[in-house]
Amino acid sequence: MAFNPAEYAARLQALISGFNTQSSRALYDNQIMNQTGRRAIADANAQYDRQAPQLVAGYGRSGRNTANVKSGAFSKAMQDFAKDRVDKTGQAQGALDTGNAFYQSDLGERQAQLKADQGVVAQQKAQQIAEDAGEIMRYRAGAYA
Amino acid sequence: MSVHNYDWVTGAAARPENMPRTADRAARVGSLVMTAAAGQTPYNYDAGTKAQNDAYNKANMYNQAGPQAGAVDPFAAYGGIAGLTKMLQGGGSGGGSGGDSALDWAKFNAEQSAAKNTTDTQLRALQGLQGRLASGGYRGNADTLLGLINQQNTQGQAAIQGNYNTGMGNINAGYDTAQGMVNTGYGDLNKYLNANQSNPYANLQQQVSPVNNAMANYLSAYGVSNDPVNQQVQASQMANQQGADSYNQLQQLMSANQLANNQSNLDVSQMAQNYATTGLGSQRAGYQANADTARTSAMNQLMDQINQARYGVEEGVGTRRNALEEAIINAGGSTSATAADVNPATGRVDSGPAAAGSGNDGKKPVEGSASARAQQVAAAPDNYPNFKAALAAMNPNYKFTTMAAAKKKFPALAGKF
Prior knowledge:
The structure holds two protein chains of two kinds.
Chain A: H1 5-61, H2 72-141
Chain B: H1 22-37, H2 50-59, H3 80-89, H4 102-135, H5 142-195, H6 216-221, H7 227-330, H8 370-383, H9 387-394, H10 403-409, H11 411-414
């Protein structure tokens, strides 16, 4: 089978098309993930912001959080509430960062695979040309081949 | 036929042992001629006794008249009496002539002449055969054929070598083309690989977003300490950082693998190029070996054909030479003559020790021939006391002036004294 430039170009184009399709899909998934993640964080913060006054009011009604009384229970409840908010939003942000990082990693991996596939095609091209060269040489040798 | 057999020769003088000397022979011949001219039975009075002579006279009517003038000359065929006399005097050895008729003498002379002619013809034929053997004439057109064979050999070798050169040229040209294609193909690959030595993992770093205490001011407003919350911020930040560090370590590992793979691809490409180049070289070597083998085979085949043809020609030459030598030997000739012995004018070997008729081969030398002359010169010291005597005897017509001139004129003879 002699080297066919058109077939070679088609294979390269197929590789690039496949890469582009996968990358586009991954990018879309990543954007969805970021939107979802950021919205979740925003929702959590909004929820914490709404619950904080209720928590303060609850301790006020029980007389454990007045102008003259600052009970230890109130302080601990507020600190736990704040720590929980930090923990939850931190985890969510961390997960988002990890998702973005793996998206980049996935993109790089697909890019590396594309290069590798292109390299294989280029190697096959060179190999085919080498075989064709040997065949041409055999033709030239004629009866001595 | 010998004169001894004639009935008129009855005396003792007719026997070979009593052959007359020259003077006796002249007298005898004269007597014979005289009686024959008288129309009588030829008779030698000198050889007979008185009684015999008387008896002869009586028997032949001595007192009868002789032949009349104007009668037919019975010896006209021999130039008359004088001619017959001369002929008989020049006759070889043997007894005297007696009562043969003119017809008998003519027959005798004709036989002698025919015999001499036959001998001369055979001698010339033998000398011709010797000449053909010595000069190599028996080879016929063998040398021409050998020349054609050599020409065929030269042309054949040139054709074979030409085919070989053409084949080798095509092989080398094919190799150059193939090598160029390999270089181009793998050159493009190497170019591509070098241009795409990217490492997608090289700059990948997971970004760690900062964790904040969003309620710091809120807690402070209620007089609640933020310290425990800040500890949670640090813990969460650390947890996220640890995840990012693990990721980054993974990226470094992947990056290293990618770099190694890139280098491996380059190495593989170069190895494949070397492999292809080596393969082409081996392929070319194989084709060249085939060409060498084909040339050697063709050369050997050509040599076999040439040798076969040469053998056939030389075999024919050998057969002809053997036949020629056998013919010469059977004719009593010598086969030792060389090309220098061949007379270029006649193509025969008519002189020299190996020449037929030279005496060495048992045949009588042809009188006056070169071989006879050479024999005379060789025998001169035995026959003559000095050069001058030999010169006078062997060259009676030479006008002697000085010894130096004579020796210069006859160097071979002079060399014998």
